[in-house]
Design brief:
Distance between the termini: 31 Å
Number of strands: 12
CATH topology of the largest domain: D-Maltodextrin-Binding Protein, domain 2
Largest sheet: 7 strands, mixed
Number of helices: 17
Oligomer: single chain
Radius of gyration: 22 Å
Structural class: alpha/beta
CATH class of the largest domain: Alpha Beta
CATH superfamily of the largest domain: Periplasmic binding protein-like II
Order of helices and strands: HEHEHEHHEEEEHHHHHEHEEHHEHHEHH
Helix content: 40-55%
Shape: globular
Strand content: 5-15%
Number of domains: 2
Length: 423
């Protein structure tokens, strides 16, 4: 599973773990930060938890921070994604948190609601240095809790040879997208575009369509869900059309399958993050590089894509709060993020990093950089795991013809209102 799916799977499985335990006094609020962080060298021990590949390779980067701050020492604990959510929740309940933890972007609202996270100190970083959609993943009720560390976004992967043979170019609009996917199917693909027919994490594919149509998940004041709207209906109907027309097969391709079917031409296009570039170049062999490309997602009123990634948060119980925030600040600097990409292949969260030739001159990474200027995450609410699971379930009923779009959206709205935002 990729880092989006893994983090979200853990969240969905454990979303209720914090209920009735640990802190219950809600987010700490904008005045709860313990003061500004100075520019003096960091000192003392810093503990940080990081998940997946990040946890395995962060120590390599941390040694550079230690070289620049010789009186500081960074201890990195690698935590498997599968146990990360529960481990963080347990550490909060027991008052035994590390200084810093990496958080999946959809976890911030939940853990901020416990009161365990310290708001980002004023002046630590400049909000304007980050992609707007990425910065928003750290913000709960107008208060930032930590900073974005790395980002992911989705773009369209497509077979250039098949598109050229069909006489079509990368689509920019919904109408072009429909024609494009049909053309690739006519060229021999079993699926002109591969889309999940509902089920786990399929909300990540349909929510951008609602955003592109001008809709959103919450009302402007953040108090009401807005699934029973024309924009969400338009998104659901458009998504459903690919299955109704036989352009997308109603099967779910798991990790490993999508790469091989794309390489053998069974899948003409699909949406994914930057990690797939390396996988395709490796598995497809040297000749396959000329047979695929990436493009920004097609759209309606906008071309908004989904954004995910990982954030860094400091706990209120940190034993070395000053040094912890200095490490977070250092990890957020463009030069550090460029270095981090070379170690981890994680995309930078700061816009300035993309001026480097590593990104600006790369035919794949430059597209991701452009897409990040129009990308969005779900609202940072404590109940998002439960609400998104309802979207997944109802979307699957729609694509399989078991319910109408209107009934599905009415059900999502009713269940979301029952679940609430957790605020």
């Amino acid at each position: 599973m990729n880092r989006w799916t893994t983090a979200l799977a853990v969240t969905a499985a454990s979303a209720l773990l914090l209920t009735g335990c640990g802190r219950t006094d809600g987010p700490a609020g904008p005045d709860a930060s313990k003061g500004a962080i100075d520019s003096e060298p960091a000192t003392g021990d810093i503990t940080i938890w990081a998940m997946g590949n990040e946890g395995e390779v962060l120590k390599e980067l941390a040694t550079q921070f230690e070289d620049a701050n010789p009186d500081a020492s960074v201890t990195v604990t690698a935590v498997p994604w599968e146990s990360a959510h529960d481990r963080i929740a347990t550490s909060i309940a027991g008052g035994e948190t590390p200084d810093i933890s990496m958080l999946g972007t959809t976890w911030v609202g939940e853990f901020a609601a416990t009161g365990a996270l310290e708001p980002t100190p004023e002046g630590l970083v400049d909000e304007g240095d980050f992609f707007e959609g990425s910065w928003g993943t750290a913000v709960v009720d107008d208060v930032a809790y930590g900073v974005p560390w790395y980002v992911d976004t989705r773009v369209l992967y497509y077979r250039t040879d098949m598109a050229e043979a069909a006489g079509v170019e990368a689509p920019e609009t919904w109408d072009e997208y429909t024609a494009f996917a049909k053309a690739l199917k006519d060229e021999g693909a079993t699926s002109g575009v591969s889309l999940p027919p509902g089920g786990f994490d399929s909300w990540q594919y349909v929510a951008p369509l609602a955003w592109q149509a001008g809709g959103d998940i919450l009302s402007e004041d953040g108090t009401e869900f807005t699934f029973d709207t024309p924009e969400w209906k338009e998104a659901f109907e458009f998504y459903k059309s690919f299955f109704d027309d036989g352009v997308a097969e109603p099967v779910r391709l798991e990790g490993g399958e999508i790469e091989q079917k794309f390489i053998d031409g069974s899948v003409g296009s699909f949406f994914s993050g930057p990690f797939h570039v390396g996988l395709l170049l490796e598995q497809g062999g040297p000749d396959f590089a000329d047979k695929f490309a990436v493009a920004e997602v097609p759209g309606d009123k906008s071309r908004t894509s989904f954004t995910g990634g990982g954030n860094l948060a400091v706990f209120n119980d940190s034993e070395n709060r000053d040094a912890a925030w200095k490490f977070v600040r250092w990890l957020s600097e463009p030069e550090t993020q460029i270095e981090w990409y070379g170690i981890s292949t994680d995309l930078p969260s700061t816009e300035a990093a993309y001026d480097d030739a590593t990104f600006s001159e790369d035919p794949y990474l430059s597209v991701f950089a452009d897409q990040l200027t129009d990308s969005k995450a779900p609202p940072a609410i404590a109940t998002w795991a439960q609400v998104s699971a309802v979207i997944d379930q109802e979307l699957e009923k729609v694509t399989r013809g078991e319910t109408s779009v209107d009934d599905a959206l009415a059900s999502i709205q009713q269940q979301a209102e029952s679940i609430g935002t957790g605020q």
